[in-house]
Write a structure and sequence with these properties.
With 232 residues, the chain is an alpha/beta fold. The chain contains six helices and seven strands; from the N terminus they run E-H-E-H-E-H-E-H-E-E-H-H-E. It has a seven-stranded mixed beta sheet with strand order 3-2-1-4-5-7-6, sandwiched between helices.
Length: 232
């Protein structure tokens, strides 16, 4: 999946999506000494508050915890290039798409990735769907610095609870050797793990990895859908 000169950009809606969607793959990439950057478009916790009630100590405290958790989780994976956006959770649809696209375009131009890992379109969370669509626009093949490989990942919960559309992966990454690192990184997100059968429980994450592994004759796998690949 990777070669020694590759540069990986993760475009995620919220802090924790990067570990849930591709934490094992990021650990694999760092073991190969690849350059990795993570871009968060939104803050990830405002949906837990009444609409508009964000100027209070509890909101600021939870937002700070989520940001610190992300920094520590990525630091554990030896990833330090991180951008934090402040868009409100599950309210990306209230913003001009162009403003999101421009931020992603700017990041692509400055980081010059060979691979982008991002959300897929079959998710309950509207921010995930809009992130996918914004990456799609930002990666028009006529632009300069367009990555040669664009892959989408799945997020437990958001991808588990759709009514009809489902994620259909066609790339599977063996993360057995990096599973413990993924879980340790996930554990930095205080309060986000809940008891099984919640999909984001440790058992739930492993069950999904085992299921994707069964699809690909692996013990534990993270799954992706290849959205576009350009070879020259």
């Amino acid at each position: 999946m990777f070669c020694s000169s590759d540069r990986v950009l993760v475009v995620a809606a919220h802090p924790d999506d990067e570990i849930l969607g591709c934490g094992g793959t990021l650990a694999l990439a760092r073991s190969l000494n690849l350059s990795i950057s993570v871009m968060f478009l939104g803050e990830g916790i405002s949906a837990r508050f009444p609409i508009g009630e964000y100027d209070n100590n509890e909101f600021h405290n939870q937002a700070s915890i989520r940001k610190t958790s992300a920094i520590n989780a990525l630091k554990f994976l030896d990833i330090f290039d991180v951008d934090f956006g402040n868009r409100l959770c599950t309210q990306f649809d209230t913003l001009p798409m162009l403003s999101i696209v421009k931020d992603i375009e700017s990041k692509i131009s400055s980081f010059n990735p060979t691979h982008i890992l991002t959300h897929n379109l079959s998710e309950v969370n509207i921010d995930h769907r809009i992130t996918y669509q914004a990456v799609e626009v930002a990666c028009r093949p006529t632009r300069q610095s367009v990555p040669s490989n664009i892959l989408s990942f799945e997020i437990p919960c958001s991808g588990s609870w759709t009514f009809s559309t489902t994620f259909k992966p066609n790339i599977f990454v063996d993360v057995e050797k990096f599973w413990d690192k993924k879980i340790e990184a996930w554990n930095y997100y205080a309060g986000e793990c809940h008891p099984f059968p919640f999909p984001r429980s440790v058992e739930g994450l492993k069950a999904l990895a085992q299921y994707r592994g069964m699809m690909s004759n692996l013990k534990l796998a993270e799954a992706f859908h290849l959205e576009r690949a350009i070879y020259k």
